[in-house]
Amino acid sequence: MYKTLSKLLNSQKNQAFVTLATTDNYAKGAMVLGKSLRNHNTSRKLVALIGPHVSEPSRAVLRKVYDEVRLVDVLDSGDAAHLAMMKRPDLGVTFTKLHCWTLTEYSKCVFMDADTLVLSNIDELFEREELSAAPDPGWPDCFNSGVFVFRPSNETYGKLLTACSENGSFDGK
């Protein structure tokens, strides 16, 4: 029993909730998300990916909430036309979340957008397989990238970057 419990605890240390903040406004949401995960006693690490436009005061607060705060380059979809039609130009940098696949020191992660809020412990999400996500309602038939389970991999990261550069995004996100 001790070996089983020890193995479980070690695997939990090797897993993380991940979010992304590209601006101070998103950093505020990430602060609330991180605090809500802590308030509900997650046993997993918390990682915030941040863009270069996040100010030092916001970074300092994120460092108090998250176990790791990592600076990443912003990846832009380059599809201003679709985003303008949707009246969501801020979503152009959504490709930046692809950096989460570079977190290879973790065996499994759950990505959560900075505008999500945890109302109870959700550690059971780590029991899901990669890639688990909720469906997006309506056309086209796809998933919502606001919350998803994944396994970090530099190989997957490279393939995703290639696919994005060759195909772009159907909706500008």
Draw up the topology in text.
Layout: H1 2-13, E1 15-21, H2 24-39, E2 45-50, H3 56-65, E3 68-71, H4 80-85, E4 108-112, E5 132-136, E6 142-150, H5 154-167
Parallel strand pairs: 1-2, 1-4, 2-3
Antiparallel strand pairs: 4-6, 5-6
Helix pairs in contact: 2-3
InterPro entries: Glyco_trans_8, GNT1/Glycosyltrans_8, Nucleotide-diphossugar_trans
EC number: 2.4.1.186
Catalytic activity: [1,4-alpha-D-glucosyl](n)-L-tyrosyl-[glycogenin] + UDP-alpha-D-glucose = [1,4-alpha-D-glucosyl](n+1)-L-tyrosyl-[glycogenin] + UDP + H(+); L-tyrosyl-[glycogenin] + UDP-alpha-D-glucose = alpha-D-glucosyl-L-tyrosyl-[glycogenin] + UDP + H(+)
Question: How would you describe the overall organization of this protein?
Answer:
- It is found in: Cytoplasm.
- Pathway: Glycan biosynthesis; glycogen biosynthesis.
- It catalyses: [1,4-alpha-D-glucosyl](n)-L-tyrosyl-[glycogenin] + UDP-alpha-D-glucose = [1,4-alpha-D-glucosyl](n+1)-L-tyrosyl-[glycogenin] + UDP + H(+); L-tyrosyl-[glycogenin] + UDP-alpha-D-glucose = alpha-D-glucosyl-L-tyrosyl-[glycogenin] + UDP + H(+).
- The chain has 173 residues and is an alpha/beta fold.
- It has one domain (15-167): Spore Coat Polysaccharide Biosynthesis Protein SpsA, Chain A.
- It has 5 helices and 6 strands; from the N terminus they run αβαβαβαβββα.
- A 6-stranded mixed β-sheet has the order 3-2-1-4-6-5.
- Helix 2 (24-39) runs parallel beside helix 3.
- The longest helix has 16 residues, at 24-39.
- The radius of gyration is 16 Å and the shape is globular.
- Mean pLDDT is 84; it is low at 79-92.
